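ARCHIVE CARD
CATEGORY: sequence design from structure
SOURCE FIELD: tokenized fold
FIELD CONTENT:
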């Protein structure tokens, strides 16, 4: 019975790779050369990633007006670290760039907490009021609150107060 060549190479005392007629020194040179090629490929991939990341604008990501307002509010309340975390989470900015952005917000103008709006002094558009009235007459108070909230930009509690005022007016008339 004849044993195949790769198994013959493993059958001895030492484990040596199947050589195909190449001496050990040549095998070592080929292995070393292969490692250098692998290292070069990894370096090129890393360089390409850095270039692409820079060209995608992650470093200078655009900040939405809503996020900008939220960041200003956090800075005004003294929560700069939380503002940096939110900015990084929303835009993918690096820590250094996010910190710079938040520092610029803090230095740009004296900030005060966002003004609180009361539902009593808010005038809602006539079409929004009509939609809310129709939904209240259809016994859809949640829909009316949602409509007022979306159309006016008010918070949930403020929209609920307005809808309850409209509801009270409807009951009174």
């Amino acid at each position: 019975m004849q044993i195949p060549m790769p198994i013959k190479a493993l059958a001895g005392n030492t484990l040596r790779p199947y050589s195909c007629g190449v001496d050990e020194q040549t095998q070592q040179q080929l292995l070393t050369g292969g490692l250098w090629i692998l290292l070069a490929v990894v370096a090129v991939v890393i360089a390409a990633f850095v270039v692409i990341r820079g060209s995608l604008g992650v470093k200078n990501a655009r900040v939405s007006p809503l996020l900008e307002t939220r960041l200003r509010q956090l800075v005004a309340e003294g929560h700069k670290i939380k503002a940096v975390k939110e900015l990084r989470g929303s835009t993918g900015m690096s820590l250094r760039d996010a910190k710079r952005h938040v520092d610029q917000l803090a230095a740009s103008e004296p900030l005060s907490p966002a003004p609180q709006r009361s539902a009593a002094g808010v005038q809602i558009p006539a079409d929004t009021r009509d939609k809310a009235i129709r939904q209240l007459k259809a016994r859809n108070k949640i829909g009316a609150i949602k409509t007022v909230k979306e159309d006016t930009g008010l918070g949930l509690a403020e929209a609920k107060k307005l809808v309850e005022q409209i509801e009270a007016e409807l009951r009174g008339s």
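CARD ANNOTATION: The two ends are 107 Å apart (CA to CA). Helices lie at 5-11, 24-55, 65-76, 80-91, 95-108, 126-137, 141-152, 156-172.
SHELF: design records, drawer C
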